[in-house]
Amino acid sequence: MDTTKIKEHMPVVCSNEDQFGVVDHLDKGNTIKLTRDRTGQHHWIPTSWVTKVDDKVHVDRPGERAMKEWMSTPPEGAMH
């Protein structure tokens, strides 16, 4: 997967094409930091979930599962 195509403010969509996040930025390493959710919390997802990048970042799982599995604390080495 070419992660260089991932840009700030791109929608992040789950496997059923529903948007569940927006890219804040690509962290060093293998995570994507998402913009704050409605509660003001940032979340991180691994780039290994990404299946393709066009005008959106597509991930390999349904949104509900992704939101259960995303990280709510920065992974080691991530920019804050």
End-to-end distance: 24 Å
Shape: globular
- For the record, what CATH class applies? Mainly Beta
**Count of separate structural domains:** 1
At CATH level 2, the architecture is: Roll
Poorly predicted ranges: none
| Rg from alpha-carbon coordinates | 11 Å
Query: What's the number of helices?
Result: 1
Report the count of strand segments: 6
Give me the secondary-structure category: mainly beta
Q: Main β-sheet, in a few words? A: 6 strands, mixed
Here the CATH topology equals SH3 type barrels
Helix content: under 10%
Mean pLDDT metric: 93
H/E element string? EEEEEEH
Our estimate of the beta-strand percent is 25-35%
CATH superfamily: PRC-barrel domain
Arrangement of strands in the largest sheet: 4-3-2-1-6-5
What features would you describe in this structure?
9% of the residues lie in helices and 32% in strands. The protein has 80 residues and is mostly beta strands. It has a single domain, classed as Roll (SH3 type barrels). Strands 4-3-2-1-6-5 form a 6-stranded mixed β-sheet, covered by helices on one side. Strand 2 (19-26) and strand 3 form a beta hairpin. The protein is globular. The mean pLDDT is 93.
List keywords for this structure.
single chain; 80 residues; mainly beta; SH3 type barrels; six-stranded mixed beta sheet; 1 helix; 9% helix; globular
List the helices and strands and how they pair.
Blueprint: E1 11-13, E2 19-26, E3 31-34, E4 43-46, E5 50-53, E6 57-59, H1 63-69
Parallel strand pairs: 1-6
Antiparallel strand pairs: 1-2, 2-3, 3-4, 5-6
